[in-house]
Amino acid sequence: MLNRLAYRIHLSLERHFPEQRLFLKSDTETRFIRLRPSTQIIALAGGALALAWTIVATALIMMDSIGAGSAREQSARQQAMYEERLNTLSADRDLRAEEAVRAQDRFNIALAQVSDMQERLLASEDRRRELETGIDAIQETLRRTIKERDEARAEADRMTLALNEQSGGATEMGRARDTVATLEYLTGALGMAAEERNAEIAEAEAARAEVQAIADAKAALEMRNDAIFTKLEEALTISVEPLDNMFREAGMEPEDLLDAVRDGYSGQGGPLTPISFSTSGAAPSAEELRANAILGSLDRMNMYRIAAFKLPFAMPVKDSFRWTSGFGYRRDPKGAGNRMHEGTDMAGAYGTPIYATADGTVVHAGWDNGYGRLVKIRHDFGIETRYAHLSQVRVEVGQRVSRGDRIGDMGNSGRSTGTHLHYEVRLGGSAVNPMTFIKAAKNVF
User: In terms of domains, do 141 and 259 share one?
Assistant: First the structure.
């Protein structure tokens, strides 16, 4: 039964795939290979499967290529938008920097005016005290003169009464002469007392008028001081708030940062020292309190300025460039799969100057495996910056650099696919996004 079924299947296959023979001839003999129907069917099926696999693989490769092209175009558009936004932020940063410089100049001028006004106010206070002392002396002299006048009048009355009571050998002529002499003496004494009194009254009136003028000038000076203090307070509020926001956006607490800066700069004296006056134990005046508050805000701005130069808020590249790769996981350009990119890449012309982004000390300047030519700078507050793939290193280990100093040139050394700068910021040894610091400074510098 099974043999008949197999025979029938063989016959039906021979109708469509008749047996073929493949002859192989040599110089001495001839051989042939029999291609049975089943063998032909297996070969045909294998060829069909290979053809189908080729078509499917080609389609998948074409779809992946089309998708990759669309992704590249979308990435290019996003990159162009990102660069345009960064250019706008850079222009805004420059404008803020100019405004900060102008505000600092206004602060210095206003501070000089406040100092001059304080000196004038102290001088007016000394003059007022001298006038009050003079008025008290004049009033005391006037009281003493009036008392002497009253005593002279009483003495004249007693003498007149004594003359009237006299009797004996005195004649009427002698009494008349004595009376006239006494009256002349009293009249002269009273006239001199009246003149002295009038002169002292005039001096007292002039002193009162001068005291009133000084009081009016003092009131006008206080009003002017109040207006200047108000403008200074408003300007300081407007200037300090962006600095507070800048450090908070960079992930730092402003008060802790200022304490750390003060620990490193603990010297005393200077123009920002609080104002103090000898008040004999009296409480400080309102003007002194406001002046000290303004000086405190100026000191805060000065501490912020010191901290800003010690933190990487500046740009390492000042010439034209384009952003090519940001911080985070990405597909490795060398084909090593997805890897963490611990910095940001800026592509530009070969040899473009590279600058330090903050004050610090160079701790590495040379070759370092995948980084190529690398510069490491250690800053305060546990921060380190790295500048990799350089074509030339222009600093040495141990060298102190300031923000804006040229430390190398852009290149293509190490594990790199093109000319660019690989820029890293590390906090406590861990890599953080450099754009955090760059964006934080957009409204200040």
Answer: yes
**What's the start-to-end Cα distance of the chain, in Å?**
97
Q: How many domains in the chain?
A: 2
**Does one domain contain both 254 and 402?**
no
Q: Do 417 and 367 fall into the same domain?
A: yes
Range of the domain at 219: 128-276+284-310
Res. 402 pLDDT band, cuts 50 70 90:
very high
pLDDT tens by residue, 189-247? 667 777 777 777 777 777 777 778 787 877 777 777 777 767 776 666 666 666 666 76
Residues 367 and 293 in one domain: no
* 319 and 296 inside one domain: no
